[in-house]
Every structure is written in C-alpha cells, then in structure tokens.
Amino acid sequence: MAAPALVALAHGSRDPRSAATIRALVDEVRAVRPDLKVEPAFLELSRPGFQTVVDRLVKAGHDEIVVVPLLLTEAHHATVDVPAAIAEATERHPQVRIQATDVLGLETCFLQVLDERLREALRAARVRELDALVLAAAGTSDPLANQAVARLARVWGSHHKLPVTAAYASAAPPATGEAVRAFRAEGRRHIAVASLFLAPGFLPDRAAELALEAGAVAVSAPLGAHPEVARVVLARYAVGAVELVPV
C-alpha cells in the first residue's frame, strides 16, 4: 500500500522569495524521503493553491493525503483557515481521506537553526560581541501564540546567558525597534535580532528594518529551508499518516 501523499501547506505571500523558500524546504523533505509524494501548496497569494494540489493528487490516484501546516504558531490560520481548506477539499473529494497534522510549532530544535542563521549575520556584520538578544516573530492577536514565542525566547536567552526580549512584527507589542531601544536605554550597545519566521517576506523585512533603525548590530535571516525544519515536517507527517490507519 502506497504511503499517503504529503502536502506542505504554507500561508503564501506576494513576495516571490517566500514561495521559493517553501519549495526549497519541500526539496529538503524530498531529499530525506524520496519514497514519498511531497508537494508544496499555499492558502493564498502564492501558487499552487491547496485545492489545485489536492485535485492533482487525486487525479494521480492518491486517496490519502497528510497536510502539514507550515505555521509556527496555533493562531488564526491554523485554527480557521487550514480546517476550512481541508473541509472544502473533503467535500469536493469525499472518497479521499485528508488528515491535517499539528502545525510545525516552536520546536526547541529550531533554536539551533536560529543560532546558525544569527552566526551568519554576525559574521557578515563583523560583530563579535553581544550583550542582548531580540527574538522577532510575526505576532498575532492570539495571546497564547505570543506567549509561546516569549517562552521560546526565554529558553534561548538562558542558553546564551544573555537578556532576551520577544518582539512582534504585527498585532502585539513590542515591535523589534522598541525592543532594541529598550535595551539601548539600559546601556546595552551590541543587540542582535533573530528572525523567527519560516520564510522571507514583508513582515520579516519590516521587523529587520525597524531593528536596524533602532541600532541593532545584526539581524538574521528567517529559518528557511533547513534540514532541521524538514525533519520536523516529516515528524508531523509520520503522526498524521498513523492517524489515517484504520483502527
């Protein structure tokens, strides 16, 4: 029996770098599991759309699909948009079993990726000394999702023995610039910002711009198409595939 197809479902962005990064991440997943049918899809703004990908998989003979939402928090897109998209696909293809997994979430292993991206940014900026960190995320009106980012920031800061503040690009304070200025008001001058975003786009660009204007010495690139992220995608897929097995 063939394994279920894997659809890596991202939100989508008008910025072409975002979709390119998602496709590169899918390539990382395929490299680890070349036996699986793995396809990228987007909720909006980028192509291919989720319904188009499901139609294509059904036409190719797949009757089981595991959808891994490429989202870092359990906010509106995860709780409303993804279930709605899957409900629509299921209504259109009642013979196909479609299982959504948990979102990627904020795995502690992502801190390794953050460190790697930040080291790249520090080398490029020729910075060797830090006295504070800011963890920049998208932000949401869901306070629990923002609290999850703040918890990860505390773990990250504890690991590096540096003060750290979580900052948000939208919907919640503080913005990255505010966080950097607050540290500078304490007398700290070597403040770096790590970008807790999956892919480039308007929000990470805005967060970086505000941070640098406020005096940050370096801002990292988003997590991107990293093997560690691909492993989490496959871990989510494995759970979803098991849930498709008849009891």
- Strand tally: 8
Radius of gyration: 19 Å
Distance between the termini: 16 Å
| Lateral arrangement of strands in the main beta sheet | 2-1-3-4
Backbone structural class? alpha/beta
Given the C-alpha coordinates, what overall shape results?
elongated
Low-confidence stretches: none
Series of H and E elements: EHEHEHEHEHEHEHEH
Q: Tell me the fraction of residues in β-strands, as a range.
A: 15-25%
Structure characterization notes:
With 247 residues, this protein is α/β, with parallel strands linked by helices. The chain contains 8 helices and 8 strands, in the order βαβαβαβαβαβαβαβα. The chain has helices at residues 16-32, 50-59, 76-92, 110-125, 143-160, 176-185, 202-214, 227-243, and strands at residues 5-10, 38-42, 64-69, 97-100, 132-137, 164-168, 191-195, 218-219. The strands form 2 sheets. Strands 2-1-3-4 form a 4-stranded parallel beta sheet, with helices on both faces. The protein has a 4-stranded parallel beta sheet with strand order 6-5-7-8, with helices on both faces. Helix 1 packs across helix 8 (227-243) and helix 6 (176-185) runs parallel beside helix 7.
